[in-house]
Amino acid sequence: MKALVLSDTHGTTEEVAEVCARHREEVDAIFHCGDSELPSSSPVLEEMYVVLGNCDLKNAFPEEIVEEVEGVRIYMTHGHNYNVKMSYVPITYRGEEKGVHLVFFGHSHVPVAFQQNGIVYVNPGSLLIPRSRSERSYALVHATGEEVTVQFFERDSGRELTDMRESFSL
């Protein structure tokens, strides 16, 4: 299973469409972790799983989803309800409650990948307003039955941020 993961795009459509077009043929699914600030009817979001962020219109999207793609169970939420800017503990508890392999979240605009209790957590950063790094980023997540590889990319050039690549055993 290979997924494109975006978050915190805050009203941008051209940039989202460009990143999706860049990777559409190589991924099984596209996930948007919230704060798209677009209506649910926006054509750029048509082929994506999307959750509600704190800047989105209320009830535009679900607050959380669990999806299975190619045998990999994925939980996605924006992260604001789990205080991800303060600690990852609440979201790790939620991931365990959901019984998933992967958790995708956003909100902090900080790209990160880590593993806790056998679950891999990924925040792709922001396509618009980066924090902690200068690059506007997104992620590609490749999960096999035994391993997860997370790659982060810079939005404009599509260049991999190789110092951020992470691999985890499941």
TrEMBL record:
Residues 1-144 form the Calcineurin-like phosphoesterase domain. Its cofactor is a divalent metal cation. Its EC number is 3.1.4.-. InterPro entries: Calcineurin-like_PHP_lpxH (IPR024654), Metallo-depent_PP-like (IPR029052), Phosphodiesterase_MJ0936/Vps29 (IPR000979). Keywords: Metal-binding. It is an enzyme of class 3 (hydrolase). Pfam families: Metallophos_2. Belongs to the metallophosphoesterase superfamily. YfcE family. This is Phosphoesterase. It comes from Aliibacillus thermotolerans.
